[in-house]
Amino acid sequence: MTTNDPSGQGNYETNIENDNTLTNRQGHPITNNQNIRTVGNRGPATLENYDFIEKISHFDREKVPERIVHARGAGAHGYFEAYGTVGDEPASKYTRAKLFQEKGKQTPVFVRFSTVVHGLHSPETVRDPRGFAVKFYTEDGNWDLVGNNLKIFFIRDAMKFPDMIHAFRPDPVTNIQDARRFFDFCANSPESFHMVTLVYSPWGIPANYRMMQGSGVNTYKWVNQEGKAVLVKYHWEPKQGIKNLTVKEAEEIQGKNFNHATQDLYEAIERGDYPEWELFVQIMEDGPHPELDFDPLDDTKLWPNDKFPWLPVGRMVLNKNPENYFNEVEQSAFGTGVLVDGLDFSDDKMLQGRTFSYSDTQRYRVGANYLQLPINAAKKRVATNQEGGQLRYYNDKAPGQNLHVNYEPSSMGGLTEAEQTGKEYTPHIEGNLVRASIDRNDNTKQAGETYRGFEQWEKDELINNLVNDLAICPKDIQDKMMALADEADEEYGRRLREGLAEKAKSMNNKEEFGQEFHPHPLGTKNPSKAVEDAINKSQDADPY
After folding, report:
1. CA within 20 to 30 Å of 273's CA: 209, 326, 518, 527, which one?
2. Which is nearest to 349 in space by CA: 190, 159, 64?
């Protein structure tokens, strides 16, 4: 552009730029993006290469720390449309949450699907639960419904969560997942047996993200205008149908494309085949329910449909892909404690632990101001007294607020509390403070019911998968797992025992039954053979 010279000596020209001109973060136009500044064209370089230093130093930092769990993910935008009812009754009977009240009311959402145990670029065919997290941008602020594809979990107490994940993740010495570590934890945590039964069946490898169920897993509460609360479980049912994979099918897919589920979701939305789920809830009166043979707050248990029917409350459609994966999928941040008025916590001990852990993780991973990022920010006014923190780029202040006042209460023009209209739910809590497990902790009954509900091919796949991985485990772990299977169902235990006995006969002296030395990731049939094949079947090459 041409500009008046402030020295008064005439016009001068600066760099010519337009809307498409490359700049640095300071807004300076970049005139040479091919070469750093050097002494002669061969170097050495000089320290004042500002454009290069800014570019490379940002590149060095462009990945935030990977999620500890749920690292591999895909996401999409869409909307939730309420039915205005819970089954045949008005939603207001059970909850005052605004997003459920009106038939046809649409709330924007962002959904992130994920695998749980493995890293950011791991295959999407691994045997693993799948994360199913939904962020509702409601008129009352954000609501995060954070769950998995499977409706139960391995443990019922948050104290055990770090140990569980450590056992399922790669060995700290070899950096390879090992089935012995997985079953060592599960055999000594018998409450996990129901989840093991599901994860080792074809339900442990969903075909893709569009064709899998979702669940809130934890028990929550709904609260109505009068302050009455009920316990609630959430379930997402895919309108596309449900599809799962056998080990053989998963191996074939992984050999062709280890991003298949991400690609499937992206391409379906691009071609206008928008995936859709219907949201159902199960409702139970608040309380311990001693008449049941399980505790409704136990995350290792299902609520039986015949006693607590699934009630439809709305549908969700995903109709827009992210414009930038990092900004929207990688930086999206969810928390089980993110609830709006009319939704509440239960005393679920896993939920209590997750509520701290999830948001704490986001503050560490993305930063203290992660809620100012567009993908995480509420789509309504936000006004807080929070200050500072890394990467804070605006103040959460109200129009007309006295900017000198960043505290409450104040009589000098600071923020004030909202007026509460709905009656607060105030449950009566009484008891000794203890460190104890939930009682009514039958660890195998529902696992047996789940086994008997499988089709024959699902039972066959479950037994084959368990035998393959348990075969390399020490005998005491095998014995514990067989005992749990015996308790769950006579056929289940017998088939597992027979399968392990047959496997013992077929294993050679290099892979002695229960004593294989080499790491064995979940679901692999002969990982040591793959290591040998990479050497024996590869092609020689001369140095160049």
Report:
1. 326
2. 159
Whether residue 518 lies inside any domain: the answer is no
Token couple for 183 = 């079953």
- Residue-range definition of the domain harbouring residue 233: 73-372
Evaluate whether residue 183 is within a structural domain.
Answer: yes
* 358 has binding-site annotation: yes
Hey, is 73 helix, strand or coil? strand
**91/86 Cα distance (integer angstroms):** 5
CA 361 and chain centroid, separation: 12
Give the tokens for residue 333: 């941040």
- Coil, strand or helix at 532: helix
- Residue 541 has which token pair? 């090459």
Q: Which tokens belong to 318?
A: 């995903």
CATH number of the domain bearing residue 178: 2.40.180.10
Tokens representing 400 are 């007309």
- Decide if 385 is inside a domain: no
Report, as residue numbers or ranges, the catalytic residues.
Answer: 70, 148
Spans in the chain with pLDDT lower than 50:
1-7, 509-513
CA-based nearest residue to 497, from 512, 520, 475, 515 = 475
pLDDT at 197: 98
Write down the pLDDT at residue 234.
98
> What pLDDT score was predicted for residue 36?
84
CA neighbor of 289 nearest in space, from 277, 301, 281: 301
> Is residue 133 a part of any domain in this protein?
yes
Return the half-sphere exposure (C-beta side, CA atoms, 13 A cut-off) of residue 303: 23
Instruction: Compute the distance between CA of residue 172 and CA of residue 77 in angstroms, rounded to an integer.
Output: 37
Between CA 523 and CA 168 the distance in angstroms is: 13
Query: For the chain, first and last CA: distance in Å?
Result: 51
Q: Is the pTM of this model over 0.70?
A: yes
Q: Please tell me the distance from the alpha carbon of residue 366 to that of residue 67, in angstroms, as a whole number.
A: 10
